[in-house]
Design a protein that fits this description.
The complex is a heterodimer of chains A (77) and B (713). Helices cover 16% and strands 42% of the residues of chain A. With 77 residues, chain A is of the alpha+beta class. Chain B has 713 residues and is of the alpha/beta class. Among the domains of chain B are: 4-161, Rossmann fold, CATH 3.40.50.300; 174-269, Helix Hairpins (Orthogonal Bundle); 291-442 and 452-504, no CATH class; 543-575. A 7-stranded mixed beta sheet of chain B has the order 2-3-4-1-5-6-8, sandwiched between helices. In chain B, strand 5, helix 3 (94-106) and strand 6 (111-116) form a beta-alpha-beta unit. The chains are: A alpha+beta (77), B alpha/beta (713). Chains A and B meet through helix 1, strand 3, strand 4 and strand 5 of A and helix 3, helix 11, helix 12, helix 16 and strand 10 of B.
């Protein structure tokens, strides 16, 4: 099932299928190591649910929900 | 042999700075890159008879034109033509770290990889085959553990032995981009378009990536620029139609694809994505949605209390030292202008600034702890949602707190602490609004007015003023962000690096570096400012006739009053009257008096006017200057009871006046040293001038409104 990163729950795991946008936000997303095919694991959410923290390539990164909206993830079930 | 030029590149958190310090030791120069406020560290390293000039580039993930650091890094590489680039990569996260390496290699510069933190990777069951990596990428790879001092010799030898082979590095970008790239390369090479700075293929890639910097440079060559742009447009349209994507997406995907294929046999991982390390487990608690904020408040408050507790004694020492120095000058110099200049102008002014140095040292020590442990990024993460509403970032909280968000801080380290904020716009907004906080020097002013007009409700009012300062800072940030501070809010995306135990050496080093900068900058400026203020408040001096009049009075007292105590008291009173008259007659007094017609709108008379002008040197001076103007002599900032009584009984003063002065003090120009630091940190005099004039005007309007409304009640 393909979902937006914004809608993933803490402790959910998935594989990035698409990062589709142009400009700075998507550039930064890729620069930090979130690439198509990368395995990600949501490790936490800030007190007000936003930003989200996730693990990719053994590194924890965080981004805002508005930024996560560009990332599509294939999750199981 | 001439010196070898080497640069150190790498991702943030890759241990680049630690490696730089390992190689350079403590002998290095810190400057800014030309025209920008990005810090540049440079060291001369001697190794086996060779000299290497090592420059630390800003930590970046990429070489796009989106951030200042990246533009600085790639401009430095392309303009200074280093003999070698050392790219520091984190062995635990090679894929992302090598993403930068690929871009560096595309610049066709000789590269050596420093495979750093291999111990950490091995602990995580990540095994890296360095020889194979070297073979596949075609660059030397040196294993290092910078924190433990491992690999320094190997790396230096790697730098010296490396022979540039003039090899061209290129990866395929697929059937959609490769033909276009070749076509563009040909045009670029034929016309020698920007080739003195960049390799042809790199320029072509940057055109496809819509790189604003490179395209701006290219615009000068109208013909080539338009031909390249036409190809880019064609490719963009094609990609949009066939794959619904953008060239830069394809470029990034191919770079990562290339790295995935390179790393397939190089990296052996025996762990799972969802495996939680100690640091991740700590985060479960420290950034927990309920407990996280509670712990954060406790940590920030605790560190803050520690700073004041620890710096109290050395601040006291410095105060006594300058007091003693003043005493020595008092005894050694003859009465007159020189003595007044040395004591009131130089020693008081410079002492005021240096007296703060221990506080600043401890503040930066604390900030270094927050940064080096990695907790700072967690603060930013937890608070981002709140601060974003005002156009700031989560990291803005630390500068705010340091500046006086918990009453008693200091705006100077607060403004300097804003360096940790990534976004340019958010950083500027934080710098401009942190000085609104209730800093330690504003507190005596507030305390004086509260004691005079609302005795008994000190605690509640102080808390109210502190909260009002926060509200003011946040609202001003929002307003400035919507009006005069230009630019888009930046992207938040950042790494939450693993928690680390900082080294004492590193902490002391950071703290010392910042404090020294403060002392050097502030010391020189404040000397000039305090001398100017002294002159304004001293000249043209009292006429001979009036001076003689006061001398006569003193002589009369001396001959008529026999009781020693009563005599001393009477003389002091006369001297205070003389001082007040002298102040009124000084240039500052004239300015204050001439402003009265306007300042009366906020209920301020000439005395208050002089006091707030003098307060620009340092806010607590407002209290002592008011004391002089009210013929009470120099009022000590901690013992202002006579002055508060005087104000409470003065018919010119009312609660409305006091409230207006509180509002004005909260909002008007920051002290001079803060302005100097603002200019330095923003790299622009404009913002310093804005806080001086803009804030004072806004503060006056607010004070006048407050005064008039409060007078009606």
């Amino acid at each position: 099932m393909e979902v937006l990163l914004r809608n993933m729950k803490v402790n959910q795991k998935g594989k990035v299928t698409k990062i589709n946008c142009e400009g700075e936000v998507c550039r930064r997303i890729r620069d930090i190591g979130i690439s198509v095919g990368a395995e990600i694991f949501v490790t936490g959410r800030a007190p007000l649910y936003d930003p989200v923290a996730l693990k990719v390539n053994d590194t924890v990164v965080t981004l805002r929900n508005s930024e996560a909206d560009n990332i599509y993830v294939e999750v199981k079930g | 042999m001439s010196a070898l030029k080497a640069v150190l590149a790498g991702n943030p958190n890759s241990g680049k700075t630690t490696l730089f310090n390992l190689i350079a030791g403590t002998h290095y120069k810190v400057a800014n890159y030309p025209g920008v406020t990005v810090e540049k560290k440079e060291a001369k390293v001697h190794y086996e008879g060779n000299e290497i000039i090592l420059t630390d580039l800003p930590g970046t993930y990429s070489l796009t034109a989106y951030s200042l650091e990246e533009v600085v890094a790639r401009d430095f590489i392309t303009t200074t033509n280093p003999d070698i680039i050392v790219d520091v990569v984190d062995a635990s996260n090679l894929e992302r770290n090598l993403y930068l390496a690929v871009q560096l290699m595309e610049l066709d510069k000789p590269l050596v990889l420093a495979l750093n933190m291999i111990d950490m990777a091995e602990k995580r069951n990540i095994r890296v085959n360095a020889e194979l990596l070297s073979e596949k990428l075609g660059v030397p790879v040196v294993k290092t553990i910078a924190r433990d001092g491992v690999g320094k010799k190997d790396l230096l030898e790697g730098i010296l032995k490396f022979k540039a082979e003039g090899r061209k590095f290129r990866i395929s970008y697929g059937s959609d981009l490769d033909p276009a790239l070749e076509e563009m390369e040909e045009i670029i090479t034929e016309n020698a378009f920007l080739t003195e700075s960049y390799p042809a293929r790199w320029t072509a890639l940057k055109y496809l990536e819509n790189d604003a910097e490179v395209m701006k440079k290219g615009e000068a060559f109208t013909d080539v620029h338009s031909r390249l742009s036409a190809i880019v447009e064609r490719v963009e349209k094609h990609l949009k139609r066939t794959l619904d994507t953008y060239p830069e997406t394809i470029i990034a995907d191919y770079r990562y694809g290339y790295l995935k294929s390179v790393l397939k046999d190089v990296v052996k991982k025996e762990n799972e994505t969802e495996r939680l390390y100690l640091s991740d487990k700590a985060d479960r608690l420290l950034t927990n949605r309920v407990l996280g904020p509670v712990i954060m408040i406790a940590v920030l408050y605790g560190l803050y209390e520690f700073t004041f507790w620890a710096s109290e004694t050395p601040v006291g020492w410095l105060e006594s030292f300058f007091g003693w120095l003043g005493g020595v000058a008092d005894a050694a110099l003859p009465e007159g202008l020189l003595k007044s200049l040395v004591i009131s102008g130089i020693i008081d002014g410079v002492g005021g600034v240096l007296g703060f140095a221990p506080l600043i040292l401890f503040m930066f020590f604390i900030i270094a702890i927050l940064e080096d442990t990695g907790y700072m990024t967690r603060i930013a993460y937890m608070l981002d949602r709140v601060f974003r509403a005002f156009g700031l970032q989560g990291s803005s909280v630390v500068p705010y707190i340091v500046a006086g968000g918990i009453a008693g801080g200091c705006a100077i380290p607060g403004v300097m602490a804003a360096r940790t904020i990534k976004g340019t716009k958010e950083r500027l907004l934080t710098i401009l609004t942190a000085p609104f906080m209730a800093c330690g020097a504003k507190l005596p002013v507030y305390a004086l007015l509260i004691a005079a007009f609302w005795p008994g409700s000190k605690g509640g009012l102080m808390l109210g003023i502190t909260l009002a300062s926060w509200l003011l800072a946040l609202i001003m940030a929002k307003l400035l962000g919507m009006t005069i501070v230009k630019g888009d809010n930046s992207v938040f995306i950042m790494e939450l690096p693993p928690y680390r135990i900082p080294t004492l050496k590193g902490l002391l080093f950071h703290a010392w570096e910042k404090t020294w900068m403060y002392v050097r900058k502030a010391g020189t400026f404040i000397l000039a400012v305090s001398v100017i203020l002294w002159a304004l408040m001293t000249f043209p001096g009292m006429g001979e006739e009036r001076a003689a009049y006061y001398e006569d009075l003193i002589a009369q007292v001396e001959s008529t009053v026999t009781d020693e105590d009563a005599q001393a008291e009477a003389i002091a009173e006369i001297e205070n009257l003389a001082a007040a008259e002298e102040l009124r007659g000084s240039y500052a007094g004239m300015i204050g008096t001439s402003m009265e017609p306007v300042s009366k709108l906020a209920g301020f008379d000439w005395r208050t006017n002089i006091a707030v002008i003098a307060g620009i040197a340092a806010k607590e001076v407002v209290v002592s200057t008011l004391g002089t103007a009210y013929s009470l002599g120099e009022v000590d900032v901690e013992e202002f009871a006579p002055l508060s009584e005087r104000l409470a009984n003065d018919p010119d003063w009312s609660k409305a006046t006091a409230l207006a002065l509180i509002v004005f003090t909260m909002m008007y120009a920051p002290c001079f040293v803060t302005m100097v630091v603002i200019v330095k940190e923003t790299g622009s005099r404009k913002w310093g001038a804005f806080t001086l004039f803009g804030y004072t005007i806004i503060a006056f309007i607010a004070a006048a409104i407050t005064y008039n409304i409060a007078s009606l009640m």
